Amino acid sequence: MARRKKEPLSVHREKITTVASALFIEKGISSTTVDEIAKKAGYSKATLYVYFENKEEIFFSLVYQHMQKLFQTIENIILQETHSPEQWREKYLEICFSIQRLCKEYPIYFEGMIGYINVDVSADETPQVYKDIYDLGLHLSDLVKTIIEQGVLFNIFKPESNTDKIMIFFWSSISGIIRMAEYKKAYYKLLGFDNDEFVKQEFLALLGCCQNMQEETL
Question: How many CB atoms lie within 10 A of CB 209?
Fold first, then answer.
């Protein structure tokens, strides 16, 4: 009888992250233990450590997965044909709402995506997932710069606009807008705001602020 082929590393890692994700969402990251993850995934604790260094690496592997999905979504939006300033603004809002959906559906992974990762990505011993997150973050930034460059074609932005400054301002501002909208829903309602419509207005106001960020001249 032929021996069953060993499953590839990726299969075991996926089993573990799937179980871990359910536990993280149900109990929170700090309340979930490696023992629980291993037991529910059908592994011993020692075997789990063959595939992941610690709980943090499991968590950031999930962060990376959701970043990949966000990247693909934004890239698909950017690749849509654009023929007018109005269509460009619709694409811009689509991008903003796709980022908001990540925060609404998976707030813990959104926080992991925008938060500080305390590792040296240049060190050889650093797990690959942290390096992957860093690289993907750079690519996400490039996507934002691409939509800004497209906006130049429709006079949304001036040709001399500094895309790096606008990109950084965009990420720092939209993360604040989205987190406020999610964590202060009751307060928005108390003020009489329609959450979705108000957030849309904030995204458009953010666009106006981005338009005012021009290249510094001597």
Answer: 12
